[in-house]
Design a protein that fits this description.
The complex is a heterotrimer of chains A (286), B (331) and C (293). Chain B has 331 residues and is mainly α. Chain B is built from 13 helices and 2 strands. Chain B has helices spanning 2-12, 29-65, 68-71, 90-121, 124-139, 142-168, 174-178, 188-212, 216-224, 229-258, 261-266, 284-291, 298-326, and strands at 75-76, 86-87. Chain B is globular, with a radius of gyration of 25 Å. Chain C is flat and about 70 Å long. The chains are: A alpha/beta (286), B mainly alpha (331), C mainly alpha (293).
Chain lengths: 286, 331, 293
């Protein structure tokens, strides 16, 4: 293979947003699947109300990085993260941190209460659409009810607003009380976005949300994401470079568990600085 | 019979899938195939024989008592002129259904708890060992459960539960009636308790496998919304396995209905319809076990075999329901 | 409702956390109860069974009622149980392995195979006492005419066969088709490939199936009550009634004779040790087999 990057010397090209703009700030993050190391000292600034895209070839660690941001990896005992992930200045990996005072970083979601709180503030949409086995309405109401008691009228309003913002309202308004599983793949994915934003998180993580969708559904999803940028901070993992270029404000290019380039997307795709990213962008790399 | 077998085989052979040997490759292949096929047919013949044996054996009792065999609770093997020999299965049938039902009522929540604990909360290494321990519970022979029930559980129950209740409760009140009975610990409830312990590992093991089969993405999505583990289990995981779980319960129910020795030791063996939770009773299986070798006459034997047929039909129905709900793999 | 809304209020958050703790507590209690039941049962067995063991317990036949404490033993039952299980396993292994082979290799997805599978499941879950009734009707009251060891062995075979059939089919299905094809590519017929290659490759699994079948029948009591009946004396005559540990337990435990009760506990301990070790060895073999995959 052409890109045997020399592990230690490869500099990260970093044109980062100002510190006060950052909602999330990953510093020196290492990640392990059991004994296998998947991330090597990764830094990642995430700017407020911007879309940050994580790109790179399969196995580069972009999904792994995303899954540390809401600590969903905690469901699996063998996985662990070391380093810092500052969320509004507080390290969400720190066991004693107020964000998450109890989690040990190595266990199962045994206690759960505070991780649950964290995950409500940093929502996630997965690669496969994951509607819960309940109606469209309840899929959205479910998360909201976890957080607070909501009257019927207000809940109706929340459901409508969430679906509208996820560009699904017109298609779903007549079947709100039918099962979410009856929607098409693209609609299901937008339902998951609606469900994620209904609880008003600060950050929304998306893990290749369009990889299972056709071009039309993808376009609708992208439109929705661009609208959502005004209210939320979005981090999206994608293997679709055009998609990253179309919607993202910042692009992080990863390779073999390292961050190689982090720059505003407007520059990153036009003139990649590293040879590795140049070759990836021009399609010469996996 | 042999001709029919061969004919069926010839018809059967071409349908089988997978790689096939060269035709006529010898080495007794045809004979081997025939042997395997006959073994499978022996299985079918066994079940058919079982059914026929129960039908033939039970027929005299069914034809003699007709529908009243199901509704009467008179069980009188020793006929006298003013009290003729008569058999009615209502007592044992009721006892069978009641004990199995109570056993499931007790075992179900415990099984859910165990399965959830092992899958969701228990550290993995510990879960492995606890899982093995729970399965060991399933391996203990039923006669050992019977002895334990008779010599350990029943005396303890009589002394610490039954007697205090008997002394404290108004014998004419609702609770007093529900808990009335001879305080010797041998009754419907303790039999159900033993049954519950016996079926618990079966249901818990199936529940555990069902929970493990839930796609990880669904679980992740639920946690990703900010659910606590309790909320994930209650709102997402349990609804997801609901249908199969009912199948697992039916499976446990089938075992509870047909269990013999443990129940025989501890149910008190009375043929009347039970009047309270702590009343002695009998099940179909315990009646057969107690009386069959000492049956006084042909009609008595026939009545017991007729009971057996009823038991077979009940357990068959639960198995069929379980299969329908569960699919074959989890049985 | 603008941006930056209402995270859960603190009390609500506390309540959810508390509910979760209670739930975790309840599930742990459920598990603890099951473990406690196991420990209590095993403890009773060991305490009451070990205490009653003496040399006579395995060298003498069962005592009469009213014998002095410590008199008599279980020799007739031990020998009888071994013989009955041997008959049962011999029949069940042959029928079970062959029929399991037919299901996996010949019957496969055919309708007839589906029926056989269903029937096997019915037999697998049929109450064992009904199997006793069936064998009684077939052998005791017709073909043989009286209670006999053979009848007991057949009843046990009917119980073990479905277990072995089921495991055999499952095990054989794990073998890859390449293995079969490779054998046939050498010119071997299908039957030879199965016997010489597939069975050999599945050895561990077949042994596991046998052990599970053995575990299933070695503690069985109900079907023996009216087939092999029981015999107060040592007998190795297959045509005559034969003693067995489970039937001895059944008769002794319900008696008022303390010496008999003592022997019932000893017999229960012996059976439990047999069954549990067969189970454990079977599982260990199965685990080892699957970790090699």
């Amino acid at each position: 293979m052409k890109f045997e990057i020399s592990q230690e010397e490869q500099p990260t090209v970093m044109v980062a947003p100002a510190p006060e703009e950052r909602v999330l700030d990953v510093r020196g993050l290492d990640f392990y699947y059991g004994k296998t190391r998947a991330l090597h000292g990764v830094d990642l600034p995430v700017a407020r109300n911007r879309i940050t895209a994580l790109i790179g070839p399969s196995g580069c660690g972009k999904s792994t990085l995303l899954r540390t941001l809401n600590r969903i990896y905690d469901l699996y005992p063998a996985q662990r993260a070391e380093g810092q992930i500052l969320f509004n200045g507080e390290n969400l990996l720190n066991p004693r941190d107020p964000v998450d005072p109890e989690a040990s970083g190595s266990g199962r979601p045994r206690v759960g209460g505070d991780l649950a709180r964290l995950r409500a503030r940093i929502g996630m949409v997965f690669q496969r659409p994951t509607p819960f086995p309940m109606s469209i309405y309840d899929n959205i109401a479910f998360g909201v009810r976890l957080q607070r008691s909501v009257g019927k009228a207000e809940m109706d309003e929340i459901v409508e607003r969430s679906l509208t913002r996820a560009a699904l309202w017109d298609e779903a308004k007549d079947k709100l009380h039918q099962s979410g599983l009856g929607l098409s793949g693209g609609q299901q994915q937008r339902l998951c976005v609606a469900r994620g934003i209904a609880v008003e998180p600060e950050v929304l993580l998306l893990d290749e949300p369009a990889s299972a969708l056709d071009p039309l559904s993808t376009a609708k999803l992208e439109t929705a994401l661009l609208e959502l940028k005004d209210s939320f901070t979005i981090v999206i993992v994608t293997h679709n470079l055009q998609q990253a270029a179309r919607i993202s404000d910042y692009t992080a290019f990863m390779l073999m568990g390292r961050l190689i380039e982090f720059r505003p997307s407007s520059e990153a795709f036009v003139k990649p600085e590293t040879e590795a990213m140049r070759d990836y962008v021009t399609g010469r790399y996996g | 019979m042999a001709d029919a077998l061969m004919a069926a085989m010839v018809e059967q052979a071409p349908r089988s899938k997978g790689p096939r040997g060269a035709p006529g490759s010898g080495n007794g292949d045809g004979l081997f195939h025939a042997l395997c096929f006959s073994a499978a047919m022996v299985l079918m013949a066994t079940l058919a024989g079982l059914l026929v044996a129960l039908l033939i054996g039970g027929w005299p009792a069914f034809s003699r008592f007709g529908f009243s065999f199901f509704t009467s609770s008179v069980w009188n093997p020793s006929g006298t002129p003013d009290n003729p020999e008569a058999y009615g299965a209502a007592g044992p049938i009721a006892g069978t259904l009641i004990t199995a039902f109570i056993a499931m009522l007790l075992a179900f929540p415990l099984a859910v708890g165990i399965a959830v604990f092992l899958v969701e909360f228990c550290p993995r290494r510990l879960a492995h060992w606890v899982g093995i321990a729970v399965e060991l519970l399933a391996g203990i022979p039923s006669i050992v459960y019977g002895m334990w029930g008779l010599f350990v559980l029943a005396p303890w129950f009589a002394e610490h539960i039954q007697t205090p209740l008997l002394l404290d409760l108004d014998p004419d009140g609702f609770w007093g009636k529900l808990f009335s009975g001879v305080p010797n610990g041998a009754n419907i409830f303790t039999a159900s308790l033993i049954l519950a312990i016996m079926v618990l590992p079966y249901i818990a093991t199936v529940f555990r496998e069902l929970l493990l089969s839930i796609p990880p993405y669904l679980r992740e999505a639920a946690y990703g919304m900010g659910c606590t583990p309790f909320e994930v289990v209650r709102n997402i995981m349990l609804p997801y396995i609901r249908r199969s779980a009912v199948g697992a319960v039916m499976l446990g129910l089938g075992r509870a209905l047909g269990e013999t020795m443990a129940v025989t030791f501890i149910i008190g063996n009375s043929h009347a319809l039970p009047h309270s939770l702590f009343d002695s009773g009998s099940t179909i299986a315990s009646t057969i076990a107690n009386e069959f070798t000492e049956a006084t006459g042909d009609l008595h034997v026939s009545a017991l075999i007729a009971l057996g047929l009823i038991l077979f039909l009940i357990t068959f129905a639960t198995l069929a329901a379980a299969r329908l709900l569960l699919g074959r793999e989890k049985l | 409702m603008a941006n930056g809304v209402p995270m859960a209020s603190a009390p609500r958050h506390l309540r959810r956390k508390l509910t979760n703790y209670i739930f975790v507590g309840l599930t742990s209690i459920a598990t603890a109860l099951a473990l406690a039941a196991l420990v209590m049962i095993l403890w009773s067995l060991v305490a009451k069974g070990l205490g009653g063991i003496n040399l006579a317990a395995i060298t003498q036949d069962q005592p009469g009622g009213g014998a002095d404490m410590g008199q008599g033993g279980l020799r007739n039952g031990l020998v009888g149980s071994l013989i009955l299980c041997a008959i049962g396993m011999a029949i069940a292994l042959v029928i079970g392995i062959l029929s399991g082979t037919w299901l996996a290799e010949y019957g496969d997805a055919s309708r007839l195979a589906g029926t056989v599978r269903f029937i096997n499941d019915v037999l697998l879950s049929a109450p064992s006492i009904l199997v006793g009734l069936f064998v009684y009707e077939l052998l005791v009251s017709h073909l043989v005419g009286h209670f006999s060891a053979i009848a007991g062995g057949v009843a046990l075979a009917v119980l073990a066969t479905p277990v072995i059939t089921r495991t055999t089919e499952d095990i054989l299905r794990l073998q890859s088709n390449q293995l079969r094809e490779a054998g046939m590519a050498l010119g071997a017929g299908k039957g030879l490939v199965i016997r010489a290659i597939i069975w050999r490759a599945s050895r561990t699994g077949l042994v596991t199936g046998g052990l599970l079948g053995f575990a299933r029948i070695s503690g069985e009591t109900a079907p023996l009550l009216f087939t092999s009946l029981g015999n107060p004396f040592l007998s190795v005559n297959l045509g005559q009634p034969m003693a067995s540990l489970p039937t001895i337990i059944f008769n002794f435990a319900l008696s008022a004779d303390d010496n008999w009760r003592r022997l019932a506990w000893v017999a229960a301990l012996i059976i439990a040790v047999f069954v549990l070790s067969a189970n454990i060895i079977g599982r260990a073999l199965a685990a080892r087999g699957s970790s090699h995959k």
